[in-house]
């Protein structure tokens, strides 16, 4: 260690630990690199050869950025860090596929109170493995040590990705028509939203993350850290399949804001959908947490996905083909409703969200037991 590095370490920043973390994660990151990635790991900027885009007639770049939210508090509490990376990739890349775009590359950012090389490597390995599964090159990242601002075991993660879609193949609400069928795709669990409420419920009940839950068949920490499902690669294969090409008009990633609001964002103004609760049974984790907190499942539809990770709005005549294709890809689809443009009173409906003037959605009926 140089004298300058030693002086910096006295302030709480260990550059040697950072270098070790890079060495531990390097092989996982390199597995996401195809011939388009230039320069390898460790450069000031990640480089991606975009010459393949010259084959597009009108390439549209899609970008997304996100984090994992307070789910990282659970990972820190039980010292398990190898799943948070998949959560991060899913939150970012599965937003890109919503417009029909193929992800090209991603970068990540980890802020921590103290660089523990093995912990950082676990996080980044999770990111790299999820990038590999979604066909996304992890071209760069940053780990920043913030002693005094964050505690020694505290960290947060964020990421950004860029994808591309041919302009005439972009998915958007303008493609949605009266009579289109809405198909839900199963979530793996809570994914990465609503964890502030989860933590509040458990704290209020005095339940620790290492406590075993008979209802969940695992400790609370293990059950709640189930990683977010990855939809990108399977959906891109369905979108590219000649049998189903053009059948999907819009997609919705069910994240913050809940079920109705996220579906409303990808419907045209004036259209509406009544989502049939009886078409699925929320996963045990949602039922158990709702019971612990004294809440009804219906009251939680704006906080949790309740088992729906993604929606596809599909041409009615192709809906059976799309459902079959999604099943073959392991995405567990089912029909939840039909788009209508008939005039009606929208009282009780969610209309658009996050600044989008979209369609109207409400959930009706009772959940399947």
How are the strands of the biggest sheet laid out side by side? 3-6-4-5
* CATH H-tier superfamily of the largest domain: PurM-like C-terminal domain
Shape: globular
In which range does the helix fraction lie?
A: 25-40%
- Please provide the ordered H/E string of secondary-structure elements: HHEEEHHEHEEEHEEHHEHEHEHEEE
First-to-last CA distance? 62 Å
What is the C-alpha radius of gyration, as a whole number of Å?
22 Å
CATH topology of the largest domain: Phosphoribosyl-aminoimidazole Synthetase, Chain A, domain 2
- Which CATH top level class of the largest domain fits? Alpha Beta
- Give the amount of beta strand, in percent: 15-25%
Number of domains: 2
Mean pLDDT: 91
Task: Specify the CATH architecture of the largest domain.
Answer: Alpha-Beta Complex
The major sheet is characterized as: 4 strands, mixed
Number of strand segments: 15
Class from secondary-structure proportions:
alpha+beta
GO molecular function: ATP binding; phosphoribosylamine-glycine ligase activity; phosphoribosylformylglycinamidine cyclo-ligase activity
EC number: 6.3.3.1
Domain PurM-like N-terminal: 60-165
Organism: Leucobacter komagatae
């Amino acid at each position: 260690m140089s004298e300058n590095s030693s002086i910096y370490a006295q302030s709480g920043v260990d550059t040697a630990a950072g270098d070790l973390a890079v060495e531990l994660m390097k092989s996982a990151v390199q597995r996401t690199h195809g011939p388009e990635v230039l320069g390898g790991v460790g450069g000031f900027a990640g480089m991606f050869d975009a010459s393949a885009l010259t084959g597009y007639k009108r390439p549209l770049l899609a970008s997304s950025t996100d984090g994992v939210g307070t789910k990282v508090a659970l990972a820190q509490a039980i010292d398990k860090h190898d799943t948070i990376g998949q959560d991060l990739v899913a939150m970012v890349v599965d937003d890109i596929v919503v417009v029909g775009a193929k992800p090209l590359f991603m970068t990540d950012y980890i802020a921590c109170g103290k660089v523990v090389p093995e912990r950082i490597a676990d996080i980044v390995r999770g990111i790299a493995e999820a990038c590999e599964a979604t066909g996304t090159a992890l071209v760069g990242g940053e780990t920043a040590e913030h002693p005094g601002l964050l505690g020694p075991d505290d960290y947060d993660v964020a990421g950004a990705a860029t994808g591309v879609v041919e302009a005439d193949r972009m998915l958007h609400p303008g493609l949605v028509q009266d009579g289109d069928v809405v198909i839900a795709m199963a979530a793996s669990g809570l994914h990465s939203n609503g964890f502030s409420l989860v933590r509040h419920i458990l704290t209020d009940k005095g339940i620790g993350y290492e406590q075993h839950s008979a209802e969940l068949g695992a400790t609370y920490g293990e059950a709640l850290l189930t990683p977010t499902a990855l939809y990108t690669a399977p959906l891109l294969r369905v979108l590219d399949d000649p049998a189903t090409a053009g059948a999907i008009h819009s997609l919705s990633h069910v994240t913050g804001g809940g079920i109705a609001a996220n579906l409303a964002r990808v419907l045209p103004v004036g259209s509406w959908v009544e989502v049939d609760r009886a078409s699925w049974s929320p996963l045990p984790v949602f039922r158990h947490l709702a019971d612990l907190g004294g809440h009804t499942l219906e009251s939680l539809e704006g906080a949790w996905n309740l088992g729906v990770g993604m929606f596809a709005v599909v041409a009615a005549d192709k809906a059976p083909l799309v459902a079959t294709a999604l099943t073959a890809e392991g995405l567990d689809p089912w029909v939840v409703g039909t788009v209508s443009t008939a005039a009606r009173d929208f009282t009780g409906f969610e209309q658009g969200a996050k600044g989008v003037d979209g369609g109207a959605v409400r959930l009706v009926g009772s959940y399947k037991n």
